[in-house]
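Q&A log
Question type: sequence-to-structure
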Amino acid sequence: MLSRKKNITFVIIATCIITIICALYFSSPLLFSYKIYTFSQQNNEFKNKIWAHRVDSIGKAQEASQMFKGFEIDVVFDKNESIFDVNHPPTDSIHLSLAELLGSLAKPSAISYWLDVKNLDKNNAAASLNRLLQLCELFNIKTNSVIVESQSYHLLSIFTTKGFKTSYYLPTPFIASLAAKFYQNLTTDEEQLVLRIQNSINKGTFDYISTDSQYLPFIDTLLKNKKKILLWNTSLEHHKFFDRKKIKQIIESDKDIHVLLIQLESQYDR
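Response status: OK
Response body:
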């Protein structure tokens, strides 16, 4: 009976100790410090090519700037106010401007940026370019450290001529439909759309093409000519051992991969 009580006491104490250790480990400051440490231990190729995905708040931007060479920001350009609203529709706007986010960083000029412009069109392209040039001058950011991404690839040339890097956001729903059948037995209409994508790449004055990493086989299988590649994989985090192996496999799989966006879990996610 006494031995049984000792065993129960031991289990209770051990459970408490494990709970305390887990609580300490997963507390935001300690876990964040561990993330910074594990990232700092990686080689330069890893650190240069791995950026943070969806950094759409001041808190997350401040965290990402301590760890990554660059990060992605989702923006919607408001032509009437001449501002970039940091937001990823259909998420509700919190009325955070890109200027405010950049201004919150200790040294915004030390970071590279991937701007996913959600609403670039012929009516706002010139105005959005002018505003972006103003922000670069205000925060001493070099234009070639900013990637402007849009599905409207034909509008990217005006950004390219001003020194910005640009990327054609490939049509995800269409590529996903091809992936579902392993990029085989394409219909005539599907072949024609692939050809149009290829022609846009051949003629386009943009620097990169961008898509989810799971669709890299589309680029390798169906595109004869390609540009440098930007990818994202939101299921991976660098501080997790097996995720880190997968990240390395992705970036080593194709020499044309320039950036891979990965998840940075944060209390400031939105």
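Response note: Strands lie at 50-52, 70-78, 83-86, 112-117, 146-150, 165-169, 208-212, 228-233, 257-262.
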